[in-house]
Amino acid sequence: MTFATADEDRFRHIYAGNFEHLLAYATRRVDQPADAADVVAETFLVAWRRHRDIPDGAEARLWLYGVARRVLSNHLRGGVRRDRLGVRLRQRLTAADAPDPGTEVSDRLTVRAALARLGDLDREVLMLTVWEDLEPREAAVVLDVSPAVVRTRLTRARARLREIIGHDPGPPGHVLDVLAAPVPEEGR
């Protein structure tokens, strides 16, 4: 729907007369100035879409405050959800007993270099089954090939990787365990 010239002029007048008030309103209610700007932008977007609902005169500001209040409420609820998600992620990361990644850099580089020497399909089959822990039939769905192709490619890819890298000298759980990881049993 396009605005008629009178509607455009009315909206511009409402915007100019109320922008500073709404920005001050939002700024006093959020922690970051950028969040206040987002609230005001969303408020005027709603006003733009519902321009025929905006009352005339001083009532327009009150109507805009009502819209801003609802936009702000949605914004704050979204912030609470983001905070809760952040807490859950931090808890999971803390609970995971992750070794210092710096100790594995050279091994990771070795594996990546060896993987780069494999064909695309062999590399992807190996990564999907070992690193993503997919069964061959699941990897087949991802790759749009038959499970038999995945099993054959997996056997070949492991043999080729052993030729390139050699045997894994590291302890159990070592980065190079990609060579010794068991082929996942397929659930039938």
Automatic annotation (TrEMBL):
InterPro entries, per database record: RNA_pol_sigma-70-like, RNA_pol_sigma-70_dom, RNA_pol_sigma70_r2, RNA_pol_sigma70_r4_t2, RNA_pol_sigma_r2, RNA_pol_sigma_r3/r4-like, WH-like_DNA-bd_sf
Ranges where the RNA polymerase sigma factor 70 region 4 type domain occurs: 110-161
Pfam families assigned: Sigma70_r2, Sigma70_r4_2
GO annotations of cellular component type: DNA-directed RNA polymerase complex
Residue span(s) of domain RNA polymerase sigma-70 region: 21-78
The keyword Hydrolase appears for this protein: no
Keywords: DNA-binding, DNA-directed RNA polymerase, Sigma factor, Transcription, Transcription regulation
Family membership: Belongs to the sigma-70 factor family. ECF subfamily.
Protein name in the entry: DNA-directed RNA polymerase sigma-70 factor
Organism: Paractinoplanes durhamensis
Organismal lineage: Bacteria, Bacillati, Actinomycetota, Actinomycetes, Micromonosporales
